[in-house]
Amino acid sequence: SGGFTLIEMLVALAVSSLLLVAGSTLLIQTLRAGNMVETHTRDVRALDVAHSLLRDDLAEATLRETRAPNGLDAPEAFSGGQSLSQPLLSFTRSGWLNPAEADARGDLQRVEYFMQEGNLLRRAWMRPDPVRETLYADRVVVDGVDRIGLRFFAGNSWQLNWSGQADSLPELVE
To answer: How far apart are CA 2 and CA 5, in angstroms?
Structure first.
């Protein structure tokens, strides 16, 4: 008389179940999309920081020759390439800030970029003429790197390697 039949209850339960499945699927997809966007944003931010760091370092590169920390290699001003045994980039930069001259040092700094275990690392020495005992700071610039390609533009052509004994800096680094 005034109640629901079993068929009406089963139909209502089926419709409710379909709505719950659709809603939960939509929620799961939204959470996955949010995680993907967050991961992508984090990757883009890391690449932006790496780009800024490289751009700033290269903009301040100088032609000052410096001997490698091992003390054996010939002095180099700016070198780069894709050798497995050498750094990707190695140079002296100026413009190292020293607010209120808090440290007893100049504004020159020796910098190297190299790959290690899938990471692009930046090594900065505390002096422009490092020896084995010179303190340095390593910073992971980008992690999860599969490969890196470098080339240097000078004059009218691109080169895959830049000699450290060159008497000029590359016009462009890609």
So the answer is: 10
| pLDDT tens, N- to C-terminus, the chain (174 residues) | 578 888 999 999 999 999 999 999 999 999 999 999 998 998 899 889 889 999 999 999 988 888 777 777 777 888 888 776 788 999 988 877 666 666 666 678 899 999 998 899 999 988 888 888 888 889 999 888 888 889 999 888 998 988 876 678 899 998
Alpha-carbon gap, residue 124 to 38, rounded angstroms: 31
75-79: long-range contacts, CB 8 A cutoff, minimum separation 24: 75/164, 76/164, 76/165, 77/164, 77/165, 77/166, 77/169, 78/162, 78/164, 78/166, 78/169, 78/170, 79/162, 79/163, 79/164
State the SS3 of 86-139: CCCEEEEECCCCCHHHCCCCCCCEEEEEEEECCEEEEEEECCCCCCCCCCEEEE
Q: What is the pTM of this model?
A: 0.74
